[in-house]
Design goal:
10 strands; about 20% helix; 10-stranded mixed β-sheet; single chain
Length: about 190
């Protein structure tokens, strides 16, 4: 019997369901950056750290000429490698040393050169800095979706870059026509 093809969730937003109460993922929106037979990697786009981008610039001794960007918040991307800095950005194909295309014009970059450009005011106009990421083993994410822990929807640039932090979870669910105020924590299957 031939195994059905796996559907990739790359470039999808995961919207946590109310019954997902684990501290790292309660009421989160995560962007899936990679998804294949080895598992999935994603970053949370609505959980803040206590850091500002300027703190990162200072830590890396990067000269800052864009003070507005230095005040941008830094996000907590997930529980894996919380010291790893990642930048999610729109555009910039091939511009940075270590970038991975997510899809839909979104990129994940882990190299210092993008941070230097942002500090100088020359980086991508739409970018957020994230520390750490979330990871799922083979089949784990698919299993969590079947257990109603997550909903998924195509990535939306405005949710990632423009929506207020406290509104991202609600707005991402609304992309699916779901009102989070009406969601139940009860799990069941029809």
């Amino acid at each position: 019997m031939k195994k059905p093809p796996r559907i990739s969730l790359k470039n999808q937003l995961l919207v946590s369901m109310p019954q997902l109460t684990t501290p790292h993922f309660h009421q989160t929106v995560s962007l899936i950056c990679q998804h294949d037979d080895n598992g999935a990697i994603g970053v949370i786009v609505n959980r803040l750290t206590d850091h500002r981008l300027g703190d990162i610039f200072e830590q890396l001794s990067l000269p800052v000429s864009n003070l507005e960007r230095a005040e941008q918040p830094v996000f907590e991307g997930g529980p894996v490698n919380p010291e790893l800095g990642l930048v999610i950005h729109a555009g910039g194909e091939g511009q940075w040393e270590s970038s991975m295309e997510i899809g839909g014009g979104l990129w994940l970059t882990s190299s210092r050169d993008i941070l230097g450009a942002i500090a100088r005011g020359q980086g991508p106009a739409h970018a957020i800095m994230i520390l750490g990421y979330a990871g799922w083993g083979p089949g784990q994410l698919e299993s969590e979706i079947r257990q109603n822990s997550w909903l998924n929807t195509p990535a939306d640039h405005s949710i990632i870059f423009d929506t207020r932090i406290d509104q991202k979870w609600r707005q991402a669910a609304q992309l699916l026509g779901i009102d989070t105020a009406r969601l139940s924590t009860e799990v069941g299957h029809a």
